[in-house]
Each structure stands twice: as C-alpha cells, then as structure tokens.
Amino acid sequence: MLRTKANEAKHKSKARWDLFWNRSLRIQQRLIDRYSTAYSDPELAYKPYVVEMDEPFKTQWFSQPGGYPLTAIDPRTGRFCNPWNSQSTNGFKRLQDVWRWKKTRFTGSFLEKPKKFKWNMTESRMEELKAKAFLAIPGEIQVTWIGHATTLIHFSDEFKVLTDPVFSHKASPIQMFENYELFGVPRLVPPSLSINDLASIGGVDVCVLSHDHYDHLDLSSVQELSSKEVVKFWAVAMGMKDWLLNNIDGIDEECIIEMEWWQSMSFSKDQGKSETLMLNEELSNVLETKFNNDGMERKISSKKGKSELTVTCAPAQHWCSRSPFDRNTRLWCSWAFHSNIAAEKGENYYGVNNKSKFLSFYFAGDTGYPKTFPLHRQIGDMLGPFDLACIPIGAYKPRFFMQDSHCDPHEAAKIHQDIQATRSIAIHWGTFPLANEPFEEPPTLLYEAAEHKDIDFTAIPHGESVRSETVSKSATVDFAIS
C-alpha cells in the first residue's frame, strides 16, 4: 500500500515537471518567433521535434541499404506519415495554435475583400504570353506558370504534362461568397490559361496530382478536364485513385495510374505520331533498379523511332486532408519526369547531329524542408540532376504553424541545390492568400537567396513561360497591389 502511494506521488511529481517543462518550451518558442531574424538565419527560428527510431516498425519505413524513405503507414493510426518525422509533420494542430494563427487573419481581414494583385503588363503582352505557352520548342523543356501550383509543361514537341489543376475562383470545397475569405480562399489572379485553351491544343498527355488539399485538387476543375477529355492519363499517389473514381463522373479507371514513392511509369509515342500515347509497362521501382554510371538517362534510353516519358512518384514532406475525418488517408508526393525524345527528326534537329535528346524535370508540389533528414538530397541523388524544376516559395508564415508543411524562399533555394537543378522557377505564391506573408515578400526573399547562392532560380509572372536551355537573368518581378 505504501509502495503504491509512493509510486502515485512519483508519477504526479513527474507529470507536474513535464507540464512545467512543456510550458517553458512554448514560452521559449514564442520568444524565438517574436524576436529572431528568421530569414537572415532560418536555423535560429525553429527547432523541429525529431522522432527517434524507438519502435521496431519505424526501421521498415526506410530502404536497406541506402536509407531512402519508403511509403510509410503508421500502424498505430493506419494512416500515411512522413517516416523521418512522423508526428510533428502529420498536419495535426492544436486548436490554440490554429487560433493563434487565424486570429491575425480574422482581425482586420475577415469578411473583407482581399487586395487586388495585378501584373503590370498590357493585354497585347498577355496574348503574346498565351501564344508562347502553346509553342513547343524542339529539344527543350518549356514550363508555363498558369497559377499557384498549376503548370503546363512541354517536353520538346512530343509530350505535354499538366500539374495540380485548379482553375476555380476559390480554393474551397464550395464556391459561394467567391470574393470573400469564407469557406476558402479567393484568387488574387485568374489562371493564365483556361481548360478550353488546353483543349484547343489537343489536351495533355498526363496530369499529375501531388496531394488532395483544395489549392492543389479542385473538384470542378478535374470534372471539367475529364468530361472534355483534355487529359489522357492521370498519375496520382496512393489513395487518390479511389477519390477520383468516387467523385468524378465518367472518368476511365484504366486511365488512372496510382503510385507509391519511388515507383515510375513509362509512356511512349511513335515518331511522327504525337497523338498516339502508349502505356509501356507495369509500375517499376527505381530503388530496386541498379543504375549504371549514366543513371536515369541510360534507363530511359529511347527505342528506335520512339519518344519516351517516364513519370516517377517521389517523396515530399507534407500531409493530406479534405475534411476533419480523412487526414492522411491519401498519400502526398512530388513528381520527377525523364524523357528521351526520338532521334529520327533529321540532322541537327536538336542542335546535336541526329542524337536523341534527354530531358529531366522536377515538380516539388507542396513541401516543407526537413532540417534533420536529407530528403531532397536523396531525391537529387536518385533522380537528378534536373534541367528545370518548379519549387514552391509561398504560404510560409507564421513559421511556428507552417514550418513543417511549407518551405520559405531560403529553404526553396536549398531544395534547388539539393535536387541538383540547373534552373528553377517559383510556384505556390501570389495566387491564393493562404498565409500571412505579404504577397510581394516571397519573390523578394527568393531574389536575395538566389543572388547569395549564385543560382538560377527566378519568380515569373502568371502566364510567363520558361525554357530549360534559354539563358535567364535573375530579376525582380513587376506587379502592383491596390
């Protein structure tokens, strides 16, 4: 009896100490958030909670050998997780933390129309950009920023890819109160291309979905793309196929390819028959493939008279949820693309005498930057280098709330270096006011980071197109807020 009482007293004492210690840590974090110079030295601003390998099942979340993160499901919850930091990056936030962030948006901005955000360009310039977006360049990758994370990618004049299609006015489950931040976030800038524009160029070969958040997966946009047969194939992460089949009327199940991290699928076209897209093989796992010194380029060597595109599902640090009840029941990812364009185009068609052209591209989707795990260096080592990449730079404030889900511009510059990208363009900013940073801040900080690191990473206006081999100059973007 005395021993039981002593144990109870011991546990109560430990509980009081834990409560005191946790309160001290929260106070310390508030002081860091308030007074630290987060963007001059991001390392000082945040100390993420790191999960120790204290459970046997956690060792199964990484490949052996190599230590590459695998598609991981937490057996305690039955839901997907980020294996390198499964608890603090699962998207769950305490109500007091949500209110701590939201109250800064509600006071003074709730139920008010957002400020207008407008690029300083003429209508003739906008029409010129639209024409350029449809003009594929032989032997190069061309990326057109439609808005937020929606881009149109041309691989030479053979393959067209669409990413995270959102063409609606609000990132929201409903489109009511379209000009107010209520039940979702309204657009500041309309999409530079419409679904009808995409249909007018024969649609796209592949549409990839990085995850299910409303600013990346819009029901009405996907429904229209499907009903107008704009997309030939859909590449999605685990769990997304069921969502498409349950929510999109008339979508063809055979056109949906569902993948785990590090799985890839290959498509091909016969030379001179760009309208004929063929699915080459079953899913393969790049971790199980022994690459030679030529890496992905040798693996995707094009057959005679055929152009090939390999789409690989890669990891990202994020989470999924479309309601309070389905958190992380679907997987999130980034996407890597590798293409060999057939050589039989004629002499010097690519500037190199009668040789096939190898192109590589990376779409980061939505991701945080893990400070305690080399995620993006592993992606670069396994799938890089990349000729061109799209990397998010927005929705990063306040850091105590956004750190695990969204990288800031300085972290985006590190991702550019880690994945071994030659050139990158910024996405996920200036379209939906998802967070607290001013709209002009992300490209300004990116410019500083790119200048400091001497890298080719730029922010461009909506509708602008960037090519993989065209020389670019880092410059501030020209816009106005009224």
How would you describe the overall organization of this protein?
- This protein is α/β, with parallel strands linked by helices and about 475 residues long.
- About 25% of the residues lie in helices and about 20% in strands.
- It has helices at about 1-35, 95-110, 125-135, 195-200, 220-225, 240-245, 295-300, 375-385, 400, 410-420, 440-455; strands at about 70-75, 80, 115-120, 140-145, 150-155, 160-165, 170, 185, 205-210, 230-235, 255-260, 265-270, 280, 285, 305-315, 335-340, 355-365, 385-390, 420-425, 455-460, 465, 480.
- Strands 12, 13, 14, 15, 16, 17, 18, 19 and 20 form a nine-stranded mixed sheet that branches. Strands 11-10-9-6-5-4-21 form a seven-stranded mixed sheet, with helices on one face. A two-stranded antiparallel ribbon has the order 1-2.
- Helix 10 (about 410-420) crosses helix 11 (about 440-455).
- The longest helix is centred in the first third of the chain and has 34 residues, at about 1-35.
- The termini are far apart.
- Residues about 30-50, about 110-115, about 290-295, about 345-355 and about 470-475 have low confidence and may be disordered.
